[in-house]
Structures are given as structure tokens and as C-alpha cells.
Sequence to fold (371 residues):
Amino acid sequence: MRIDRLRVFDVNLPLVHGFETSSHRKTGLNHLLVEATSADGLVGWGEIATPSDPFYGSETTRTAWAIAERYLVPAVLGSTWEAPEELEAAWLRIRGHEFAKAGFSIAAWDLYAQAGHRSLAGALGGTRTEVVAGVSLGIEPTLDELLTQVARQVDAGYGRVKLKIAPGWDVEPVRAVRAAYPDLDLHVDANGAYPESDESTAVMRALDAQRLTMIEQPFAPRDFVAHARLQSVLDTPICLDESIVDVADLHTMLALDAGRVLNIKVSRMGGLTTARRAHDVARDAGVPVWCGGMHEFGVGRAANVALSSLPNFTLPSDVSGSDKYYARDVIVPPVIARDGVVRVPTAPGIGHDVDVDWVLRNSSRTLDTSA
Ligand code: OSB
Ligand code: MG
Fold:
């Protein structure tokens, strides 16, 4: 395989419903789409689903664009490879910038699957024909508005709901949702917003009594020891998200018992190869995983669906239907969830067509490079 042409599109789409986390609120997303054309005319797609601001991780849309233009496009263009991990070796010496790398990794995997006449899920080793989707709900201005959002998603058929929490918006909203839905598969995500303190421990113990499936990333990403100390006094599993950017981080989590569930994000782990490796390591350690989302457009969302078809993705993934986020997605058909379940495509590659006209109409700039 050789990639002879790369295009990177700087795409903006408005969100159907604004989303607030512990760090900030957003009403639209600005992701980069990567189109890779092989020497024999196959076209693969990837997505760089970085937030615009460096509040989730250190990357931004602008840093991703700069790294893509200066390092990743030159590394990828014209190089010859058999399997995606060989192509990824071309950027091994670039430290960090996992979201930027993930966009090129997904495009390479899409090409690789198409060349083998296989679905992306099949190429990755996926075994499920459908995956269970959950929704992630942001912080709402009032409890009533939160309950309205939960009701909307439960009525739409989703059986798992994750609530964003932050200091001042935690025990009370969780109790309210739990009281209204005693049997709902419910969990919380703090995005690292809590300091390690007696007060935070008291909040987490109160949440521990709410029968949550997990408490995601309560403390700062690099603070594995704080997570281990908290896990030792909680029954509810801690799930790590931001803390785990490579397989070494996962080994640290396992060695310290700093978490008992892993959220695998293709973007955060620098692409599908590392994401799959993390799945295997977690499986061997008996740690369940699920696929987290970054509000991906359809290209990244389709990659998440394919990854979620691997056997150890035993918890619902953030692969809700495109319509939860976007009035019109960049792929045709969009990702569709019925009764909270998404079918895994069987067509070659990501299994959806990219609506290039819609991509172009929503792009503020395009990088177009040929070998
Ligand atoms: O922590 O999972 C997170 C979105 C932006 C930044 C961080 C996170 C999220 C989500 C999105 O929760 C979930 C989704 O894509 O449905
Ligand atoms: Mg998270």
C-alpha cells in the first residue's frame, strides 16, 4: 500500500444540543477530516476529533493542523506499508499529538480493510454484529433540564446514561436521576475536575451509594496514585479516561489498581492500532473496556463502532446515533441507533460513504498534497 494523495479538511458542524463539561460549554465542533488516496485508487477516511481548546488534553484543532501539515503528512505520503502498524512506525518519533495521529491511523485502517475486502470491524478482529450504545449528558443549567434530557434519551431507547459531574454539580443531580430511574445503567464522569481532598472523598463516597456502574476520571490525568487511594475506599469501579494515552499508562493503572474499568478512545490513544492493543492488555488482565467518544463526526464515529465490536468491549460505548449530535452528518447513511443498539457495518472499510460535498461546504480550509 502507498498513499499518494492526502487531503485534510478543517470542518465545522453545529451541535443539535449544547454540551457542558466540568471545563467549558460548546455548541459546535471543529474537527479535521483526513482523506487518503492510495496509488491504486482506494480512498480511506480518518478523523482528528480534537476539541478546539486544550481543556480535555493538550491538543487543539490548530495544533493538530500544524502537526499534520509539518510532520504527519510528509511522514505518510509516499511511504510503502503492508499493515497500518508499519505506517504508524513512520511517526513513532513524534511525541504526543495522539489525536492528530489517530486521524491518519483511522484512514490507514480504512484503506487496509478495503484492500482486503473486509469491513473495518472484521479487519480489527471484531466479533459482534451489533454494539450497545450509551449516551453522555452534559451539565445542564437546572435539575429539571437534566431530567428532561435523561427522559429524552431513555425514551429514544438508550439503556445507559453517563452524567458529567463537577464540584457543585454531583451528588444532587445523580440522586435525582437515580430516584427517577432506579434501574438505569448510570455512571458519572468528572473529567479530572476534583482535587484529592477529604471533601472530594466524601462526595465520591456519597456517589458510591448510588449504584453507579463506574466513576470516571475523578482526579487529574497524571495522578494515578490519587486514583488508587480513592479506589481502595470505594466499591464502585473507577474508570480512567484522560490518564491513559498509551499502553504503558494502562500497565500503570493495573499495577497500582488505580482503576478497574478502561475507557478506550481511538483519538486519545493515537489511533486504532494502540486502541486494539489496549483492548488486548485489558482483556488479559480481566478489566472490562468500553469505547469513549469525542462527539465524533460520522467518520470517527464509524471507527468507534468498528472498534466496539471487539470481544472485551463488554460495557456500552459512547456510539450514540449521529442524530444526537448533528442535524446532518458527514457520512451516508449516518450512524443509527435503534433501541440503543448500533449495527456493525459489513461493507468494506468504515462501511459508510463520506458526503464530500457536505464536507467541502463546511470546511474553512483544505490542505491538498500529492506525492
Ligand atoms: O470525557 O468522555 C469524555 C466529550 C468531550 C470531551 C470529553 C468527553 C466527552 C464525552 C463525549 O463524554 C461522549 C460522546 O462522544 O458521546
Ligand atoms: Mg471521560
Q: What stands out?
A: The pocket of 2-succinylbenzoate (ligand 1) is lined by residues 21, 56, 136, 189, 191, 241, 292-295, 318, 320 (CB under 6 Å). The chain has two domains: 3-116+354-370, 122-343. The mean pLDDT is 97. The radius of gyration is 20 Å.
